[in-house]
């Protein structure tokens, strides 16, 4: 089944707000082998001018993933998850995520392209805080491999 | 304009230089200058830890039999784990008055993580461009002598006050 080209431009409903926990940030920071105290120690983060521990730069994937799950589950999307490869990833930040943030993410499909039998689906997940202010936009291109020759 | 962008006055001769004092303003960064390097060792344990932390439980990242059943040579590191470790040398080097404003990569080659030997990943971060508001840091990420991330770029900019 091919990816539905009509997906381009589709906006999904916001996912349930994600409350960023201090221990979750520490767990993620250990997983990406961070040695920076602002990722682990609230006192170090406060000394650097943040309200609590700071999430590593790729932490927004945890929130974005929930929006990608919506996209993959969309009945008419035609995206076979077993054929999906992550092609590109980008984060554009207004500010870093810190513990205590309550984040809401909304995904929009920005393009669906065909290239050499594969489909490239690019989506943008806009992540905002509880005041509605922009925190980060996470953009992914998923490559959906075509049928084997 | 953030006045902190200027080098702290009189800090050069301080007997014990603090993190900030050693760090550079964008005007002092030079294109081609290597600002950070780090070697990472990934094991299967690293992948399980990342799976738990990120919520990505795709079994290609911890089961050889599953990875092989979908045509892969073996268990691979999560692309997002590679992206996550690759930026850490920049995070650790970053002057306090900067923040990362943009980070992008293209996943070009998989990182195969051997059950016994793991995988060694080398990251090098080099200044790619400098302007009045910040700089672009280009990452080179090598596994088995080959680059695994393309167009891996970190944009750093003065922190909003």
Summarize the structure.
The complex is a heterodimer of chains A (149) and B (161). Chain A is 20% helix and 32% strand.
Overall description:
The complex is a heterodimer of chains A (149) and B (161). Chain A is of the alpha+beta class and 149 residues long. Chain A has 3 helices and 5 strands. Chain A has a domain at 5-20 and 59-144: Roll (Thiol Ester Dehydrase, Chain A). Chain A has helices at 22-31, 42-47, 60-73, and strands at residues 18-19, 84-93, 102-115, 118-128, 134-144. In chain A, a hairpin with a 5-residue loop joins strand 4 and strand 5. The mean pLDDT of chain A is 94. Chain B has 5 helices and 6 strands. In chain B, a hairpin with a 2-residue loop joins strand 3 and strand 4 (134-143). Mean pLDDT of chain B is 86; it is low at 1-23.
Blueprint (SSEs and pairs):
The complex is a heterodimer of chains A (149) and B (161).
Chain A: E1 18-19, H1 22-31, H2 42-47, H3 60-73, E2 84-93, E3 102-115, E4 118-128, E5 134-144
Antiparallel strand pairs in A: 1-3, 2-5, 3-4, 4-5
Chain B: H1 19-22, E1 34-42, H2 44-54, H3 64-69, H4 79-86, H5 88-93, E2 98-107, E3 119-131, E4 134-143, E5 146-147, E6 149-158
Antiparallel strand pairs in B: 1-3, 2-6, 3-4, 4-5, 4-6
Question: Which keywords apply here?
Answer:
heterodimer; A: 149 residues; alpha+beta; Thiol Ester Dehydrase, Chain A; five-stranded antiparallel sheet; B: 161 residues; 5 helices; elongated
């Amino acid at each position: 089944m091919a990816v539905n080209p009509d997906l381009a431009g589709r906006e999904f409903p916001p996912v349930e707000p994600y409350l960023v926990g201090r221990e979750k940030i520490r767990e993620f920071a250990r997983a990406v082998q961070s040695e920076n105290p602002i990722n682990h120690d609230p006192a170090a983060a406060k000394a650097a001018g943040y309200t609590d521990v700071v999430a590593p730069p790729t932490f927004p994937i945890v929130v974005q993933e929930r929006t990608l799950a919506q996209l993959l589950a969309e009945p008419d999307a035609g995206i076979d998850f077993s054929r999906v490869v992550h092609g590109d990833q980008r984060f554009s930040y207004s500010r870093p995520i810190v513990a205590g943030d309550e984040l809401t993410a909304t995904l929009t499909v920005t393009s669906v392209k065909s290239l050499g039998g594969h489909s490239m689906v690019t989506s943008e997940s806009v992540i905002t805080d509880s005041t509605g202010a922009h925190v980060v936009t996470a953009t992914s291109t998923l490559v959906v491999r075509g049928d084997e020759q | 304009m953030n006045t902190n962008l200027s080098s702290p006055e009189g800090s050069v001769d301080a007997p014990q230089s603090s993190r900030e004092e050693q760090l550079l303003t964008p005007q002092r960064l030079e294109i081609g200058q290597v600002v950070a390097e780090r070697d990472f060792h990934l094991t299967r344990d690293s992948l399980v830890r990342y799976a738990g932390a990120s919520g990505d439980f795709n079994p290609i990242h911890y089961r050889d039999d599953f990875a092989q059943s979908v045509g892969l040579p073996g268990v691979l590191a999560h692309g997002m784990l590679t992206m996550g470790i690759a930026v850490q040398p920049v995070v650790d080097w970053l002057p306090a008055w900067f923040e990362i404003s943009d980070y992008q990569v293209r996943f070009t080659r998989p990182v195969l993580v051997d059950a016994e030997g793991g995988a060694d990943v080398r990251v090098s971060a080099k200044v790619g461009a400098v302007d009045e508001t910040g700089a672009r840091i280009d990452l080179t990420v090598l596994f088995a002598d080959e680059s695994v991330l393309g167009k891996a770029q970190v944009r750093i900019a003065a922190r909003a006050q």
